[in-house]
Amino acid sequence: MDDSELFAAAQRLPTTRRPLLGLTILVVEDSRFACEALRLLCLRSGARIRRADCLKSARRHLQVYRPSVLIADVGLPDGSGLDLIRELAEASPRPGVILATSGDPALEEAALEAGAAGFLEKPITSLAAFQQKILANLPADRQLSGPRAMDDETVEPDFLAYRDDMAHAADVLSMSQEEKTLAYLAQFLGGVARSAGDGPLAAAADRLDSARLKGEPLTQDAATLAGLVQERLERRAAI
Q1: What HEC string does 92-147 produce?
Q2: Which pLDDT belongs to residue 202?
Q3: Smaller CB count within 10 Å for the chain: N or C?
């Protein structure tokens, strides 16, 4: 079933199989791989998805419309998603549901304190968990009445999206290897790698971040991470 079929009648009421029908979800996420998972979850749930890959892009979207649901990654290339969550939690009008997401579960408390109604830990692949997190926080007039079958389906993003993330990381590395840039890349690649089950890359990202926090030299760890990214770009399959 394609997008045109699902969204041809935008005013249709939610159904048990498409409980998010009629909702517009703005996903603020710099990872193509993570966003592809969310796109598939939205498609199967009946929701319309819009994507922003940074705070600047998200704010452009929000100047034009207010989404029904906002899902913001905590770590973004131009700042923290927590700042956007704080802004929208106090805005009027505001999105009906504000959620945070990250591959680091330790950030859940900070996200809730910033004003998020809930937290989605990456990887986000469970259709039932995704739907329930949104439905539990919708206003009463948007709730689906009656019983709803819980689908235990999971989604598997196309690994071409993972390769896109590797290309993004390589571009960032080629432009700068300042500490601020390396901090962003360690967070970005660590989250993407864990979502994709790429253990060696996740471990390398964690080593770089650990060295940075300890004030140790970063040259060798950055070079190792860059080499792993390049390996993945040179393969036909992402992992």
Answers
A1: CCCCCEEEEEECCHHHHHHHHHHCCCEEEECCCCEHHHHHHHHHCCCCHHHCCCCC
A2: 95
A3: N
